Structure formats: C-alpha cells, structure tokens
Amino acid sequence: MSEARSSFETQLGLVDQLIAIHGKLRAGRGRRYEQDALHRAGVVLTVAAWQAYVEKVIREALDLINVQMRDPLAASPAWSMHIFQLRRSAILNAVKKFNTPDDVKVRDLFQDSFDFSPWPSWEWCQGRRQWNQSETRRRTNTWVLVRHSIAHGFELPGDVDWLQGDNGQARLTLNLLNECRKHFVFLVQQTDRAFAAHLRVSHGVALPA
C-alpha cells in the first residue's frame, strides 16, 4: 500500500467523524438542516481526499525513482539523471495544475506522467454493483460535479436520478454520503494496486507493500 493511500485513509477519518456526529443529531426541522450541512461537508472532504491521493501517489513514485537513480549500485549515466530531472519537473508542474479529479483528468495525469491508465481497474462487480469502467467513471464524475456545486454555491445536479428525493429534487442523505465514501475508497484501492503493478513491471519501481 502506498503512503498516498495511507494518507487518504487518514483523511477519511474526518468524514467518519461527520458520520458519527450525524448519528447524534436528533430529528426535527432544524436538525435536518444541520444534517444536510454534514452531508455536504462529507462529500467535499471525500472528493478532496481522492484528489490529494492522486497528487501524492504520483509524487511518491517520482521520489522512489529519484532515490533509485541516485543509488551508486544502479550506476545510472549522468545524462539519464539529467533527463529524469527535467521530466520530473514537468510532471510536478502538471500535478500543481491538477484541480478537478474527474475520470479524464485523472487518466491524463497518470498517462502523461507514467504511461498508465487506471480505468481498466475501475470495473466494479460486487453485489448490486455490476458496473463496467464506464459506469464507474460516470459515477465518479457525478460526485466530482456535486463537490463542485457545493464548493461554488450552485444547486445540486438535477438530472441525476439517484440524487433525487421523493419530491423529485436533488438532495444528499447519510446513505448517499456513505455511498460517496465507498466509491472513492474503491477507486483508491483499485488505482493503488494497478499503479503499483505498472510501476513494478514497466519501471522497476516498487511502492511500499
């Protein structure tokens, strides 16, 4: 497991705290308003943790390659170190500009950095979820859009059936917050395993076990 994944799980502890607080709130009109604030904060924190994971795992891989190339036993030619440092700077610059962790931007950042696409690992066939990678990508993008809507004070997306309540209006609930959490835990787990395998096979680099 990468250090980036471990950091992601630590960040999710804040979401778990919100869920615990939610359970302590009593029913009532005012309480429902407070619960909605918790739902919204939980989604924002969860998507932020996903974005941070992507950024951190790429930096982590670069650091491991850097250490490996500087190993005297590796006997890397001076010119290869120079080329790597130039490439490393370009990748880190791309990471700094990364700000919307939807499916395409995540794929592009990984692909441009390490010739790796996480999409094939996103197929989710477990229980009631029988999702191919395209469906998982759609769900990811919806959660990213929900985060964006909350952060910028927009209405929640009104054209997503699973966000609609009995009155036909988009809303967030505790169950949906838990779904959001499960979704990004799955993405991080699958991406972390697939990326680690890619680094090992294609670049001879091993993320921490």
Describe the protein in words.
The chain is mainly α and 209 residues long. The protein has one domain. It contains six helices and two strands. It has helices spanning 3-24, 29-70, 78-97, 103-114, 133-151, 174-203, and strands at residues 124-126, 129-131. A two-stranded antiparallel ribbon has the order 1-2. The longest helix is centred in the N-terminal third of the chain and has 42 residues, at 29-70. InterPro entries: HEPN_RiboL-PSP (IPR041519). Pfam families: HEPN_RiboL-PSP. This is RiboL-PSP-HEPN domain-containing protein. Residues 30-195 form the RiboL-PSP-HEPN domain.
Q: What's the arrangement of secondary structure elements?
A:
Blueprint: H1 3-24, H2 29-70, H3 78-97, H4 103-114, E1 124-126, E2 129-131, H5 133-151, H6 174-203
Antiparallel strand pairs: 1-2
* Global Rg: 20 Å
Rounded average pLDDT: 90
The structural domain count equals 1
For the secondary structure, the number of strands is 2
User: Span from first to last CA?
Assistant: 5 Å
Q: Beta-strand level of the residues, as a percent range? A: under 5%
Main β-sheet, in a few words?
2 strands, antiparallel
Structural class: mainly alpha
Globally, the shape reads elongated
> Are there runs of 5+ residues with pLDDT below 50, and where?
none
Instruction: Please list the strands of the largest sheet in the order they lie side by side.
Output: 1-2
Specify the helix fraction band: 55-70%
Tally of contiguous helical segments = 6
User: What's the order of the H and E elements?
Assistant: HHHHEEHH
